[in-house]
Each structure stands twice: as C-alpha cells, then as structure tokens.
Amino acid sequence: MAIFVSIFLILPGLTGIHSISTVSQVTVEEGGSISIPCFYESEYTDHVKYLCKGHTWDICSYEIKTNEKSSTKYSVSDNKNQRMVTFIINDLKTKDTNYYWCNMEIKRGPDDGKYFHVRVTGKGDATLYVDSQKVTGFIGDQITIDCHYRGSKQIKWCRTGGEGPTSCVTNSGKIDDTKVTINRNTPGVITVTMSELRERSSGWYWCTDEDLQMPVHVTIKERPTTTTIATTTTTTTIQPTTISSTSKPVDHTYVSQEPTTEQTGTHSSSSNHLLSFIIPLCLLLLIVTVAVLTWFMLKRRKSPATAEDEQTVTYSTVTHVRKTTAQQINTEDEADVMYSTVFYIAQQNTHQVEDKDENVTYSTVVRH
User: In this structure, are 63 and 3 located in the same domain?
Assistant: First the structure.
C-alpha cells in the first residue's frame, strides 16, 4: 500500500521536478497561517497558477487560482519578475492537514506541478516554526531571526530560489555576500543574524532540518531619510524713540522664534484649556450682573414715595408766664399777656412744595 501511495505522489511531479520547486513539508500550529513560495521557470511566466488539495493528483481539488479573487481562507500573488508565486493558507485547522499542490495550468497537455505537505499541530507542538515569516531590514544594518525547533536534528539556514536551496550555513559564513552568523546558545532555538545587508539580500530563506522547512521572506530596502527642521531665531531691533525732552530713550529688542511642531501643539493645547476656563467664567459674571440689576430695579420700585407732596410743618411751644403780685397791682387794668416760643423745623427734603400748598403753623395755648 505504501508503494502504491508513493507512486501516485511521485508520478504527477515528474514533469515538474526540474521546473518547479517549493518546500517539502511544514508544520503549523492550529489557528495560524502559512505562506508557501513556489518558483517556476520562465516558460510558465504567463500561465495560470493554482493551488489544489489532495493526496493524489486525480482527487486534487481546486482551492484558488491567480486569476481569481482571494478569499478569507486562501490568497495568491504572482511575481512574474522573480518568477515566483506565493500561496497563503489562513486559519489552519487540524482537518487542513493534507498534501497541497502548486500547479501550472497547461492548456494543451497535463498540468505541471509540485506538491508539499502541511501538518497542523496543537498549540506549542509545532516541530519547526519562526516568530514571523516576514522580516524587513535596511541596507548596511543587520536583522535577527529566531528558528524554534523540537528534536536533536541540526538546523541550517538556507536561501532558496530557482531550482531549490542554493546555499546553506550551519554555523557561520556568507550567502550571496551577506554575512550570516548562527547562535545555538538557547536550547530549542537557533538565532540567525544577517549583517552587512544589501538590496540583493532580499528574497526567500528558510530554516530546515532537511525533512522540514519554514520559509521566511526577507526584504532589504533603503533607510528612510529623516528631515530635521531647524529652528530659526530672528532678532529685530527697534530704534529708540524720544517721548519728551526729559525722557530717556529706551532700546526695545524683540526676539521672535518660529515654533516647532511640538511647541505649536503645546500652545494649542494650552489655549484650549484656557478657553474652557474663560468661557464659563464670563457666563457666570453675566448671570451675576443681570441678577444684581434686577434686584436693584425691584428694590427701587418698592421704596416709599418721596416727601415732595408733604407740606412744610412748623411746630411751636406756647408757655403761659404768671405775673407777680406787684406786676398785677401795677397792671391791673392791663390784659394778660401770653408769650410763646416758635420753633421752625425745616424739612430735610430740599424739593419745593407746590404753589397751591400753604404753610401751616400749629400752636398749643395753655391758660393757667
């Protein structure tokens, strides 16, 4: 039975064994995703590429083609300049463990393809994996990739493309003039450091123990230039002005500085806080002012009427002075005389009374 299965796996790939290359087997944790690059010859540049799933060629089912839209499960991109098609499988489940085929559609004849095996494991059970399949670096700098593995096999770092791995590094060395150093100090992890990076260092690499591979795409580009905005300080001198003959001239010097972006943001924030304080305060002052004016007007309406209509009143006190006996004898024939003292109490009101009002004098006469 094993021989029968092997025949079905090998025969479909015979036509593409020298024209298509890809990984042989990868392991992925459940819920994760995997990117698989397939390299092809120039004769397939304009052909439709597709991914299908199945143990054998005759039961392989189509999943996605380069002339179709991507789905949430599968996506594909074809880089014709590098003669490379990349298939991405997302949200892998245990049931997705299977053989997949990277195929080139041929209209007149059987399609050409290359198969690879995807094994989906439980959390933490992947045999070989990396933290990320996409790494970006800058020319002249260095990048670091950690390859995690299980088992005692020796892990290597290789670059692939075209017919397959072109060169590998086990401990240290160079790949296409890019310096590679491998650190094995941490059990279960090899740390790959690529230094002296250049633009041609970009491409697909993978960690491999010969049975398993984990592809990693490296992108090297120019470091973006940072623009430094210089702060310009301008000094303006105003000539002294003589105000009078006794005043001394004063030299006014003003220094204006263009604010930076951070200063502008700070000033804007301070202005916003200041406005949020001033506006409620102005409203409060307006309310208090209106309340005071209203109270004053109401109080004025309720105040007693002025004394303009009141008449001027004069009060007097009359005192009867009894004469002595001698005075009575001498003046028996004279009539009694009454004396009175009149006190005029002036009103505090300075307003003049109306012409029709008359002054009234009140007096009290007491006869003894």
Answer: yes
d(CA 159, CA 149): 18
pLDDT tens digits, residue range 168-199?
A: 999 889 998 899 999 999 999 999 999 999 99
DSSP state of 60: -
What pLDDT shows up at residue 147? 95
Write down the residue that tokens 């080139």 correspond to: 104
Which whole number is the average pLDDT over 60-84? 91
Q: Which residue has the tokens 């990984």?
A: 23
Q: End of a domain among 193, 224, 255?
A: 224
CATH number at residue 35: 2.60.40.10
**Quick one: 3 and 120 in the same domain?**
yes
- Give the DSSP H or E segment for 349: none
Residue 254 lies in a domain: no
Number of domains in the chain: 2
Which DSSP state fits 134?
E
Asked if the model's pLDDT at residue 6 lies above 50, the reply is no
Task: Tell me which long-range contacts 53-58 makes (C-beta under 8 A, separation of at least 24).
Answer: 53/98, 53/99, 53/100, 53/101, 54/98, 54/99, 54/101, 55/5, 55/8, 55/9, 55/98, 55/99, 56/5, 56/8, 56/9, 56/12, 57/8, 57/11, 57/12, 57/101, 57/113, 58/8
Q: Provide the residue range defining the domain that includes 180.
A: 127-224
Bridge partners of 252?
A: 238
Judge whether 189 and 211 are in contact, CB under 8 Å: no
pTM of the predicted structure, to 2 decimals: 0.57
Structure tokens at 3: 């021989």
Alpha carbons within 13 angstroms on the beta-carbon side of residue 368 total 9
The predicted model gives 278-287 an average pLDDT of 90
Confidence of residue 241 (pLDDT cuts 50, 70, 90): very low
